[in-house]
Specification:
By secondary structure, this protein is mainly α. It is built from 13 helices and no strands. α4 runs antiparallel to α5 and α10 packs antiparallel against α13. The longest helix is centred in the middle third of the chain and has 37 residues. The radius of gyration is 24 Å and the shape is elongated. The two termini are 24 Å apart.
Amino acid sequence: MNNTIHSQDSIDQLEMVKGESFGYKAVQRFKRHKLAMFGLVVLGFLLILTIVVPIFIGDSAYELNFTEMAQSPSLKHISGTDSIGRDIFARLMIGGRVSLSVGLVSVIISTTIGVILGGLAGYFGGKVDMIIMRFTDTIMCFPYLVIVMTLVAVLGPSLFNTMFAIGVLSWTRIARITRGEFLHLREMQFIEADRSLGIKTPTIIFGHLLPNALSPVIVSATFNMANAILMEAGLSFLGLGVQLPTPSWGNMLQEATTLTILETMPWVWIPAGILIAVTVLSINFIGDGLRDAMDPKMML
């Protein structure tokens, strides 16, 4: 046992000297993933725009200007104006901040729930595992879109309720992934050593098991964020998500429900659709890169 520990320490020290730890290798592999780097650059650019631009645009995203209604893109309004004179570019930037916030907050909620429930099921096993997993299976039996729409309708359409509904109903995949990792890791020698030393269960779960199970969780959370942005867009398009006058990319697509705007004012709805597609695609590229970079089999 001691020889094994000393050997592992020697390997770890050698990797640190060479700069070839797991984290270092993962970063290098991620950098070599061209689509992931492209997605990271695009997403970073969009984040900067949606954070910085609204500071300088004032209230042009909300102000009604009946003298400049339905204007096509120009130097004054680079993305044109809508049917009541609001600047489309300003609404795109504020809407991007809202849509990305929904994705981020809902992922934080779903990841927290999934990690806690999956960790408890995987570590304790037995009846605890059975109860949590049967509850998870029950949630997964219902059509995701239908149950989210139902919850939002019950709570009332709003930005907060949209974040909450998406977050509390999208944790099941992360829970199953966390459970699988914990079932594997709890049988490892370092966990047995923790138990023999009398280390408390919360410390073992959150201090030793969870850090070693984070790689697949992070990857799954990345894909969940893309799905959350799409879900928000769908709910807002149906009138169940972010409510006007607060813009989001989803409720900006509502403008395309009238034939006149659909045919004669494409600048009102096409940019929002393009930004949703580009953002979701970029996040998926990043998720693919993280999945490849954090796969231990690829480190061999």
